[in-house]
Amino acid sequence: MTTATDQPAGTERWHVNRNHRHITRHPEPEQWTDKWAVEAFTEAEKLHGTAIHEAAHTVLFCAAGIPIYSVTVRTMSEAVGTIPSGETNRGPFRATLQDVLAALCAGERAEDRWLRETGMWTTGRAWAAERSALNDRTEADGFIYQAAGVFLTCRSNGTWHDLATLHSHTDQVIAKHWASITDLADALVRERHLDAQQIASIARIDNPAAAS
Ligand SMILES: [Zn+2]
Prior knowledge:
Helix content: 40-55%
Number of helices: 8
CATH topology: Methane Monooxygenase Hydroxylase, Chain G, domain 1
Strand order of the largest sheet: 4-3-5
Bound molecules: zinc ion
Structural class: mainly alpha
Number of strands: 5
Mean pLDDT: 93
């Protein structure tokens, strides 16, 4: 016998946030006004998390054959107003849709992995990493709609355009490149800005934007 609350085997329930606009894998904290307060990171910890996020985008874009001109990270005190804490400056490209989607999902999934590996993972921090990736998810949604006329979903329903499916594929790609991602993140924490050539040599990866 099944009831309306039963879920198909192998699926997990995602959470509609209180604004009724966003759906996250991890539940929204009971009360919050500021994502950074939920995370309660030091400046150094937050900078490293941002560096992991941007390094993962950078490495997976390059692996997909997409040129990256530069990557930049900023501290919380520098990222005020509309200034983003991280930026990956991408060139024009033609690439396989699945590779582009993995590169877009890579920021939030790498942050989640880094939180676990460093013993800093909490539900609130995992949720904040998701909410910080809203622009990435919106961009993925746009590419999916453009290519196939369907929308990105968050239902763990096993379809190729569901975020749970995309995340498990992304996790596998990240695992292959983890050493490059962490090395690039370490360099970003030190330098804050890396150009195309530096990205290629530090991450030991072909970057179409780097002079050969
Ligand atoms: Zn991102």
